[in-house]
Target: 4-diphosphocytidyl-2-C-methyl-D-erythritol kinase
Amino acid sequence: MMTSRGEISRGGDWLAMRAPAKVNLTLHVLGRRDDGYHALESLVVFAGTGDDLTFSPGDRLDLAVSGPRAGGIGHGADNLVLKAAEALAALVPGLALGRFHLIKRLPVASGIGGGSADAAAALRLLAAHNGIARDDARLVAAARATGADVPVCLASKARMMRGAGEDLGPVLALPPLFAVLVNPGVAVETATVFRGLGLKPGDGWGGEPHPDLAAAACGVAQARASLQAALAGGRNDLERPAQAIAPVIDEALALLRGAESCWLARMSGSGATVFGLFDDGRGAAAARQTIAARCPDWWVKATVLR
Ligand SMILES: C[C@@](CO)(OP(=O)(O)O)[C@H](O)COP(=O)(O)OP(=O)(O)OC[C@H]1O[C@@H](n2ccc(N)nc2=O)[C@H](O)[C@@H]1O
Ligand SMILES: Nc1ncnc2c1ncn2[C@@H]1O[C@H](COP(=O)(O)OP(=O)(O)O)[C@@H](O)[C@H]1O
Model:
């Protein structure tokens, strides 16, 4: 089965799509809201690498999971694929149901939103099967009800994400970014990392303002240079609490920073996956090879972020 980014492929009685990994190129925490969630400002992009989800019609919701990471997640009602599907079924009376097959490849609880991507893909496949538009308010509501990162994964396009994840900026035409993703094999729970910031509901959180990445990304001739400068001026505020839980994150960042032609290395989301950005695909491929040889138990992928 071949699926490309964001596109649904169709067979005799099935629909399938890639659920791409999400990368937070920046993640600024603005404070903690009264509802307990943290207010964020984040430039989100998507990788070529991801999970794959297939749907075939049936009389009830069902899920099978296979793939190298299938052992790391529940295969029942606790799986975000079924949670998202149930959330949509609750909002759309008479929704036509069916069976999902998830091929799980992305590391779990790793800051690249694999579960959120799977949930969003499930919503897209159910929507396609039921003739529901991609921007239907019920799809967005089901995404929000499933998780903070699910709405941005519905379109899987580069954009600013604000609020707790519900406020999405316009799609940005970024130049393709050659990247290496490195997960050092430690699962890190998102809630624990946020808690490590030590903010109480209603607390603000200072720091430099977020750079205007939309303007930087939209410059035409000098897009790459202005984007590089703007990204260098950003940060991930969750790096510090995540490193306190998993010090190996530092090691992964150091390996990327030591690679030739790596111009930025940072953690994604709540970790522990880190990414390095490279001048070209050759530099990324060389770094991937070096890091994978040195740390054979780590998940190391060269990919293009868009
Ligand atoms: C940090 C981010 C950045 O993109 O990514 P990941 O590290 O998960 O990939 C997201 O905000 C994660 O989104 P998601 O993983 O969907 O979070 P949820 O399941 O909704 O929330 C898990 C827990 O994280 C905390 N949480 C989440 C989002 C947010 N803006 N503020 C929070 O405080 C809450 O304690 C919540 O109970
Ligand atoms: N399909 C799924 N893929 C990954 N994790 C899932 C899935 N369904 C449920 N989960 C649970 O959701 C949590 C977050 O998973 P994940 O999306 O991989 O985290 P992150 O956004 O940090 O990369 C994990 O605790 C995991 O057990």
Remarks:
- The chain is about 30% helix and 25% strand.
- The mean pLDDT is 94.
- Residues 24, 27, 37-38, 40, 42, 111-113, 116, 147-149, 164-165, 190-191, 194, 269-270 surround SUD (ligand 1) (CB under 6 Å).
